[in-house]
Amino acid sequence: MSETQQAIDRILQEMPHWRQTMALDGQIEIKVYVDLKSPHAYLAVRPSIELARDFRVRVNFLPYTLSYTGLGISTSVDADMRRRPPDAAADRKARMYYTTARQYAALQNLPFRSPHRLLDSELAHKVFLFAKLQGLEVSFMMNVYLQGWGSGWREYHLESITQLTDTLAGVGAGTEGLEGFLAEGGPGEAELRDCHEQAEASGCVGVPHYVVHDAASDRELGLFGREHLALIRAKLAAEGLSRHADVTPDFSHAWRGPDS
Question: Is the whole-model pTM more than 0.90?
Answer without folding.
Answer: yes
